[in-house]
Amino acid sequence: MDTRKWVTLMAGVLFLGASFPAEACRCLPIILQNSYCNSNTVLKVKFIEDATRTMPGSQDVQKGYKVKVEEVYKGEEALKTLTFIDAKSGSSCDYTHSSDEFHKDYLIATSSNANEVSVRGCNYIAPWNQLSIKQKKGVEGAYNQGCTCDILYCSSQPCSMAEKTCTLEEYTGGDAENQRKNQVCAPINSTTCNWKNIE
Ligand SMILES: *[C@@H]1O[C@H](CO)[C@@H](O)[C@H](O)[C@H]1NC(C)=O
Question: What contacts 20, CB < 8 A, 6 or more positions away?
Fold first, then answer.
């Protein structure tokens, strides 16, 4: 290909690139019980500051945060000594922690592998003090009873009643806020799950 054709082609590629905004991160709805159940790692952490880390024997620089782990709700006890969480890999789902929120308790539900932890925008990440008392009991263990169930959003009635699911009733007059803040979706028999109050 001669240079002129190549330049024309590249200009076209750049033009196309410029005309489509960066893809926004798309997540399934983030529901604390589902995140708790589907994650092998649930921690209360403080994000301390921006940090990078180079993996031993590798050129890869990980970008993320220095952290202090306050509590391990799911995962190996060794995670208590974790000091770095990877958060960015240059995609639209990178997680950015506001510097105003450093040194505050956060709940994160994510996955770890050999005690390496990363978080991305689709993980459950929320200030600890925004959780209700019952949600805190949930992550302290009460959600375990519901881990064979799944929770789906329902924004208009009738809500589909698939086996082993509860619906989070988001329609006008629905009970979503109470379900989310005070309840666990748990089995009532071998085929059916339903909401019940966390004691
Ligand atoms: C489970 O409970 C639901 C709701 O009460 C009921 O409709 C269903 O028949 C029960 N299934 C079994 C296997 O007991």
Answer: none
Residue spans of beta strands (DSSP E) within 75-149: 84-88, 105-110, 112-113, 116-118, 124-127
Is the C-beta atom of 19 inside 6 A of ligand 1?
no
Encoding tokens for residue 152? Answer: 């789906």
Q: Hey, how many other C-beta atoms are within 10 angstroms of the C-beta on 110?
A: 23
Residue 189 CA to ligand 1 center (angstroms) comes to 6
Q: How far apart are CA 180 and CA 169, in angstroms?
A: 10
Kindly state the tokens that stand for 125.
Answer: 């990440």
Interval 25-84: pLDDT, tens: 999 889 999 999 999 999 999 999 999 999 788 888 999 999 999 999 999 999 999 999
Any atom of ligand 1 within 6 Å of the Cβ of 160: no
Q: 67-77 burial string, b = 16+ CB within 10 Å, else e? A: bebeebbbbee
Peptide bond into 56 cis (omega under 30): no
What is the residue type of 57?
G
